[in-house]
Design a protein that fits this description.
The complex is a heterodimer. Chain A is α/β, with parallel strands linked by helices. Chain A is about 35% helix and about 30% strand. Classes of the chains: A alpha/beta, B alpha+beta.
């Protein structure tokens, strides 16, 4: 449960899947999941297909991931989200900061 | 079979029979314990007072105080856990039960096996050690708790001071309720009376709770109070707060907020929603308009830049505005269900007495989440647009008693100056200081900002504002603006501001002239009421705020007139 990460063979794409509630309880495990991943001009895909709910601390965690990606000239793509989660992302104008896929 | 920890354990042997004591002590010494002896209950109690005892082997029947009473007293007096094992010749159930009832931890009937006794002692010592660990941890926790409580008290006091100009009241039309999850919360409400006798309000919601969330609240409150007093535009205020929070907060923390500015002279409300849930304008028992978040919360990115999405609406008396943080929507019931947007909308739609709506929403949320643990801070604000308002707290505007006068200023900047110097705040300060516009400060700021960004973004930098219609374009626009500002070699903006008093001195006209070295545009063909004709929302907004606006030359110069006081009524009567 929680979080899994899968890095593609060419080191261009890292896909982070988040299942269940994406909230502060995942703080450490989320950070740990990508901490040692190094992409070169690649993309981090956050797969939210299995995510039921996302709170404001999750938004903060996404910002941390973005910081990590920026330092590797990589991008963060949010994908698979439900309408409810899209609403939360839109309210925070995260569509202006992240790529919604 | 030695004691569990490194230290030698001290066993108190209580028995009235000397031989028994000697035998037992010899055995215990063989097993590596040190021993103390007591011949009756009184001596046992005294020995525990005077020595550090790890475990007690207690006989039951003794002259004077017996084993039961001695155990009761010892267990009562000692805060530390000292295990008591009864050694007794009695085997009847009643007597053995009494051993435990009087506070004993275990018993062994005589004659007992030495091996068994040894393992019982070791087992009890293990438990005692466990107790001790827990006790130490408890002590540490309660010390930490105490410290935390102290810190919370201090921060809580601080918070009270931050919201010093609480403008709530029947006569101001402002109500709000904040239910913090911890003692002080991530939510913040700041209020100041503005120059139009309306209110400037900031409702903020920091990510996280408690102390960490409070860290950001202090500078935001400072900026809010000092900048509203100095009559800075909300644009500048929010930019300043953003910069401060960018500096101060760790990456994952930010503040979603709504800024409200009520202009009571013109009865216009300006709303900037940066990441909070929808703001509702309630009129005639219906939701009249919804203001969605269109801006990035503060403390996330520097691209917040000059273009905040501001929405405006004309107010009627009796209108009510509702701002809530996400705590209401995310309130949980006992069964784990969320209150949600639909319930909130339903209450608002079904409500028939607008003056009770605020209380109704709160009580519905309260009864919905009754018994469940509160997740997020629940904050709800209602602002009713009253015909007459009275405030207890009065702002001291820094330029309140300054007299109107005639002045003009002219400024010309080349591309290098534009690159290095953000001239807008200085122009605005100049206007603020030279001209005590009683009502139109915000409007003038907006006009000047729009004219300036039109001249810079479109005239000189030739940026296409339609870019901003898509999310990625929004980012691209500001990135490109930055790039072009750095790389362009040519360009010039000329600004002329002139203020002329009316004959009576009770009003005046502020003329704003803005000219850029760009190519201009075919303004005669463009429909000025069409949003997309010239630089997006700019011209339409400027027209609505100014008495008159003229586009001159090849479309690279604009003249805008802002009238105030009796000058304004002169113009109205002419038309």
């Amino acid at each position: 449960m929680g979080i899994s990460i899968n890095v593609s063979g060419d080191n261009k794409t890292a896909t982070i899947k988040i299942n269940g509630r994406f909230d502060f309880s995942l703080h450490n495990i989320f950070r740990k999941s990508y901490k040692d991943v190094v992409l070169q001009s690649g993309q981090y895909v956050v797969d939210l297909a299995g995510t039921d709910y996302l709170d404001s601390s999750a938004l903060g965690m996404l910002l941390l991931l973005k910081e990590h990606a920026d330092s590797q000239t990589s991008t963060v793509i949010l994908s698979g989200y439900s309408d409810e989660i899209k609403e939360i992302l839109t309210i925070a104008s995260f569509d202006k900061i992240f790529t919604l896929g | 079979m030695h004691s569990i920890s490194d230290g030698v354990k001290n066993v108190l042997v209580v028995d009235d029979d000397l031989t028994n004591r000697l035998v037992l002590c010899a055995l215990l010494k063989d097993s590596g314990f040190s021993t103390l002896e007591a011949a009756n209950g009184e001596e046992a109690v005294q020995a525990v007072e005077d020595n550090h005892i790890d475990i007690i082997l207690m006989d039951v029947m003794m002259p004077g105080m017996d084993g039961y009473d001695a155990t009761k007293i010892i267990k009562n007096r000692q805060t530390r856990f000292i295990p008591v094992i009864f050694l007794t010749a009695m085997t009847d159930e009643q007597s053995l039960v009494r051993c435990i009832d009087s506070g004993g931890d275990d018993f062994l009937t005589k004659p007992y096996s030495h091996v068994l006794l040894n393992s019982k002692i070791n087992s009890m010592l293990r438990i005692a050690e466990l107790y001790q660990n827990i006790e130490e941890k408890n002590k540490q926790i309660s010390e930490k708790n105490f410290q935390m409580q102290q810190e919370m008290n201090i921060t809580s006091k601080l918070f009270e001071k931050l919201s010093k100009n609480d403008m709530r009241g029947d006569k101001t039309g402002l109500k709000y309720s904040m239910t913090p999850m911890s003692m002080f919360n991530g939510d913040l409400i700041l209020t100041e009376k503005n120059q139009t006798s309306g209110l400037d309000i900031l409702v903020g919601d920091f990510t996280g709770h408690g102390l960490s969330a409070a860290i950001g609240a202090i500078p935001v409150s400072d900026i809010f109070h000092s900048m509203t007093k100095k009559c800075f535009s909300y644009n500048d205020l929010l930019k300043e707060a953003n910069t401060k929070l960018m500096d101060l907060l760790p990456t994952q923390m930010f503040m979603a907020c709504v800024f409200l500015n009520v202009d009571r002279i013109n009865n216009i409300i300006s709303i900037i929603n940066l990441g909070l849930p929808d703001v509702y304008l309630y009129r005639n028992n219906k939701i009249f308009r919804t203001f969605k978040s269109k801006n990035i919360p503060l403390g996330i990115t520097n691209i917040l830049s000059s273009q905040l999405e501001v929405e405006m609406e004309t107010l009627e008396f009796g209108d009510r505005l509702y701002v809530a943080t996400d705590g209401i929507m995310e309130a949980y019931s006992v069964s784990g269900e969320m209150f949600g947007l639909d319930r909130l909308l339903k209450i608002m739609q079904e409500n028939t007495q607008s003056e009770k709506l605020f209380d109704t929403i709160l009580s519905e949320v309260c009864s919905f989440s009754k018994g469940a643990e509160q997740g997020d801070d629940i904050t709800l604000l209602e602002l009713c647009h009253l015909q007459n308002v009275e405030y207890e707290h009065e702002n001291q505007f820094l330029n309140e008693h300054r007299e109107a006068n005639n002045w003009s200023m002219e400024l010309s900047m080349d591309i290098k100056s534009l690159r290095q110097f953000d001239v807008l705040p200085y122009l605005m300060q100049a206007i603020n200081n030279l001209q005590p516009l009683e009502s139109g400060r915000t409007s003038v700021h907006t006009v000047l900002t729009e004219l300036f960004s039109n001249a810079l973004d479109h005239g000189i930098l030739k940026l296409d504002s339609s870019l901003k219609s898509t999310p990625q374009g929004y980012m691209d626009f500001y990135q490109e603006k930055h790039n072009r500002l750095e790389s362009f070699e040519d360009g010039n903006i000329q600004v002329t501001l002139r203020h002329e008093l009316s004959d009576s001195g009770e009003g005046g006209r502020l003329s704003l002239f803005m000219s850029d070295s760009g190519e201009g545009f075919n303004h005669k063909a463009a429909d000025l009421t069409n949003k997309n004709a010239y630089s997006g929302r700019g011209i339409k907004l400027i027209s609505s705020l100014c008495t008159e606006i003229k586009i001159l030359g090849k479309g690279n110069s604009v003249m805008a007139y802002y009238d105030w006081g009796d000058m304004m009524s002169d113009n109205v009567s002419q038309t």
